[in-house]
Write a structure and sequence with these properties.
The protein is mainly α. It has four helices and no strands. Helices cover about 35% and strands about 0% of the residues. It is elongated, with a radius of gyration of 21 Å.
């Protein structure tokens, strides 16, 4: 027979609740996304230089569009690369 410490139950693994996503632009009152601030824009890019989607960043639609336009301008001005292997 199995001893008490060997018995395993089939229960769901408890997962920690993630912090609720929020639009950092609305929360901090940022009205303008500056394309010249490359370090700030890197927060919205992954390692390959692709833009993170809204569902991952938590941005509202309005500010996600502004971020994408700012990233495009920064890429055109050579402040950000179009493609890279290790951006961060």
């Amino acid at each position: 027979m199995a001893k008490a410490n060997e018995i395993k139950y089939l229960t769901a693994i408890k997962q920690e609740k993630r912090a609720k996503k929020f639009c950092r632009f609305k929360k901090y009152g940022i009205k303008y996304v500056d394309y010249k601030d490359a370090e700030f824009l890197k927060k919205f890019l992954n390692e390959q230089g692709k833009l993170f989607p809204r569902r991952l960043t938590g941005n509202s639609l309005k500010f996600q569009r502004k971020v994408s336009q700012a990233v495009k301008k920064a890429r055109q001005m050579a402040l950000l690369p179009y493609v890279t292997d290790l951006l961060k």
